[in-house]
Amino acid sequence: MFEINELILKKAKELGFGDVVVLAYEQNRRQVRFANNEITVAKNWHTQRVELFVEYQKRLASTTLTALDEETIEKSLQALMKSVKNLAPKEDYYGIAEGPFEYRDIPETFDKAIVELDEPNEYVEAAINAALEEGAKRTAGVLYTDHNKLYLTTSNGVEAFDEGTGIEISIRAFIGDEESGHGTNSVRVLKKFDPESAGRKAGEIAKMAVNPVQGEAGTFDVIFDPLAFANLMSYMSFMSSAFAVEAGFSFLVGKLGQKVANEGVTIKDIGNMPNAYGTRKFDDEGVPTKETTIIENGVLKTYLLNTSFAKKYNTETTANAGLLMPHAWNVYLSPGDYSKEELFSEVKRGIYITNVWYTRFQNYVTGDFSTIPRDGAFLIENGEIVKPIRNIRVSDNLQHILESIAALGKDLYHIHWWEVDTPVFTPYVLVKDVGITRATK
Amino acid sequence: MHELVEFAVEKAQELGASYAEARFEEKNGTEIVMKNGNPEGLGILADRGIGIRVLVNGGMGFASTNVLTKESVEEAVKKAVKLAKAAAKLRNKPIQFSEEDFHQVFYEVKMKKDFRNVSAEEKMEYLKLIEESVKETGVNTPMRFLRYGDFMWHKVFMNNEGALVESLIPRVSITYNLVVFEDGQMEQAPFVQRAFSGGLELIEKDKPWEWAVKDVKALQKLIKEGQKPPEGKVDLVLAPEVVGIAVHESVGHPYELDRIMGREAAQAGESFVKPEMLGERIGSEAVTVIEDPTIQNSWGFYLYDDEGVKARPRYLIREGIINEFLMNREYAAYLGMKSNAAARALNYNREPIVRMANTYLAPGDYSFEELIEDVKLGVYMVSFNEWNIDDRRYQQRYIGREAYLIENGEIKHPVRRPILEITTKGLWSSVDAVGKEVEFYPGTCGKGEPSQGVPVWMGGAHARLRDVVLRR
Fold first, then answer.
1. How buried is A386 (Cβ within 10 angstroms: 0-12 exposed, 13-18 middle, 19+ buried)?
2. What is the ipTM of this complex?
3. Least CB-CB distance to A119: which of B86, B92, B266?
4. CATH number at residue B110
């Protein structure tokens, strides 16, 4: 693919473009979906594409090429130049990273065994059976295997290659209509894959959730399961992007250096984390990925940046390009020192929420939002789960949630599924005084 | 492209598929983003490929490729067949499709002002017009995110049962996020979209810049004059934008038969509705909800679905009674029925699944004045920001963005963030009157895994709800 990248780069420079980034992908992805304990569909995707970013005198344009013959390449570049030439410039554009860079292999990001895996259905069966053994009546979910190759060439001397694999499962177990639990497992190497643990957790929670009663509205201390808190962290990561901050999609606007979370809270983005689903060797401009502390002991340290944003703000890139929109790779909420039992014992009267979905904001800039618990939710009294509850809503403010984190579990869980697009590492989290509402008619 | 599509269908049958379909899709378009007055960049959309779906031994397989050679398509067909065979082993009963009448047909949506003949520079003028119009209001709007998008969506669908459907549907849209900051307070109109199937004449007629002006002025008024909404039991008049999200979330989604039968259980969830609830009352007699893909120039427009079935209006609720579900061929077959053409795929690399298109509350016979005049104490909710619903589609909430107090039949000052948090039956049973005029608002409906955000319209007439509890 590098020959094609080189060709595109050469032609783009000949046409007069300044910064040029050519990012080619070759992807093989497989999916097995199941519901009611049977496979509903199995899929395979083969994708070959080149994402192209060009700059002409501070005018930016991008496109995706799927046909890679010389004629298509030339035509596309000419069309880009024609379109972009007469546009007004982006005055706050400051260029792409200056290469070349050195890249290190990141452990546990590639496994030949996943590439060679002929038939993953046994893992689906293992997860389903584990859930059924715990007492579930029916299960639904999805399994993926991934094999990606990435070729990056830029006009600033970058030529970089990365190859990665992954396998993951997400399973939801049901007993009745309103009695369910959810478990996930996402890894990059086959020997660490544990579909049974996902099925077991889903089944266990479903069983605990039998015969739920209507939950009450009020203010409660809440223990968020990693699955539930990962959802909020995923939104938090989007709001950490300098782009989201400028565009009015973030409560972090104007708060650099300020306290936005409890002092026990440290949130990072770790682009080079072993065995993490979002890990890559380099960002979209070729800067080696790294660990970036977004919030340190409660204080907002940085937004996620690419080179252009970094220069605009007079600082260094955090290696999170996205050429237009910086984004997180793997969000990491630093663990605390509570065991799960100790965390529960902190709660006199509260709620354990195992999963949430449909997080929506009334106002991104203030952070006011609500999200809906799904799967098992439980009333806690004096550190003990006393009964399952249903039909409640978390109605609060994201910064208030971060400020009210009272304790963090010591074990981290890697969460990546349909509701959590950006992979998240999070422990169990205890948050004080969370607003809970319910339907009134 | 027809040859490659035909080749895929034939090859799949050769390899043992009892059912085979191939769908070529091509999207070509433009995206322009402007942030706080700066042009962020121009995106040229150029995507195409083929997706193949098969049934073998009652198992379903799907594979896609964007390498459009015979070899690559053959490889994809082989994979789809192999996956289907393996999947069949983990099934309790074989998948079957409903019997349908198929057609060989071409259709297209014509543009009066064809966006393919208009320069990016000219398209950016629409965004500049929003910038300037907002500026002229004098309302302090420090954060402005604007997006223009157009694309031509070309599809060729073929199956082994005689369907051949080719379509060309252009789509245009403008989206904005505007943050108003006045008197130390921030209010926001996020992800507001105007969107159509057709040419630029539709954007020019709709004038999104006027919508933006209306929004920032309403937010300024809310900051300066807004008061707390009344609490407790009041009447509530919902404008078409809010009615639209409510019919979409609490009528459209729970009536998707694949969801009802558990296929989406691990993602978008299931439904409080069960197959045996057809014919049951869910709302007052004033409530009729229609789902209609065939509305001209609508954002959710199509005439044939992605299984080649001819589209028609579906009456989900008729005078308060659950009347019809949304179905594709697989799920219609489970009930011994015919598909009502609800199968949609976002792209060549997605399977067709049960989706909405344009969902609305059918008009009644009240004028707007009549709806308002005998409300003693209530709220008129014009638009919303935050909304969500549980994954059985029974517990929902909508928070007003622009909303006003109604007192003794008159609309008064703005009210801040009235919260309607209510069950589906509670909502639709409370409707006692519906307005005469229907309006539509665009959205991107999310469902499926991998996610398939498809264009939809949502809307309807104004609805008046009696005795609902508002929270603030």
1. exposed
2. 0.96
3. B86
4. 3.30.2290.10
Cα B416 to Cα A363: distance, rounded to the nearest angstrom: 12
| pLDDT classification of A86: cutoffs 50, 70, 90 | confident
Give the separation between CA A140 and CA B114, rounded to whole angstroms.
45
How confident is the model over A300-346, as pLDDT tens digits?
Answer: 999 999 999 999 999 999 999 999 999 999 999 999 999 999 999 99
Task: Encode pLDDT of A208-262 as tens digits.
Answer: 999 999 999 999 999 999 999 999 999 999 999 999 999 999 999 999 999 999 9
Distances (CA, A) of A44 to A30, B350, B402, B450: 4, 10, 46, 12
Kindly tell me if the per-residue pLDDT of B1 is higher than 90: no
How distant is the alpha carbon of residue B305 from its chain centre? 15
Q: Which fold has domain A2-207?
A: PmbA/TldD fold (3.30.2290)
Please state the rounded mean pLDDT for residues A1-15: 96
- Strands B289-291 and B358-361, by their bridges, are antiparallel
Q: Would you state the structure tokens that stand for residue B391, as one six-digit string?
A: 């994954």
Containing structural domain, residue B24: 2-196
Query: Which two structure tokens, joined as six digits, stand for B327?
Result: 């179905």
Contact indicator for B8, B17 with CB cutoff of 8 Å: no
* b/e map A118-153, b = 16+ CB within 10 Å: eebbebbbbbbbbbbebebebbbbbbbbbbbebbbb
The total of structural domains in chain B comes to: 2
Among B387, B382, B128, B117, which residue's Cα sits nearest to residue B245?
B387
**CA distance to A31, A53, A120, B18, B55, per residue, from B59 (Å):** 14, 42, 15, 10, 5
In this complex, is the C-beta atom of A71 within 8 Å of any C-beta atom belonging to chain B? no
pLDDT at A49: 94
Strands (E), B384-461: 384-389, 395-400, 403-407, 410-414, 419-423, 431-434, 439-445, 454-460
Which two tokens mark B55?
């049934």
Q: Do B143 and A248 touch (CB under 8 A)?
A: yes
Residue B213 belongs to a domain? no
Could you say which of B150, B178, B196 is where a domain stops? B196
Interhelix angle for A70-85 vs B120-136, to 10°?
30
**Best CA proximity match to B289, nearest among B431, B121, B133:** B431
B448 within 8 A of B267, measured Cβ to Cβ: yes
Determine the average pLDDT of the residues in B241-268. Answer: 98
Interface probe with B: pick from A34, A40, A174, most Cβ of B within 10 Å:
A40
Closest by Cα among B49, B78, B46 to B62: B78
Give, to the nearest 10 degrees, the angle between helix A2-15 and helix A70-85.
Answer: 40
Burial class (CB in 10 A: 0-12, 13-18, 19+), B437: exposed
The pLDDT of B49-61, averaged and rounded, is 98
Specify whether B37 is located in the same domain as B177.
yes
Question: Measured between beta carbons, which residues in chain A are less than 8 angstroms from residue B381?
Answer: none
Q: Number of CB pairs < 8 Å for A and B?
A: 263
Q: What is the rounded CA–CA span in Å between residue B5 and residue B52?
A: 9
Q: Which of B137, B241, B143 is nearest to B186 (CA)?
A: B143
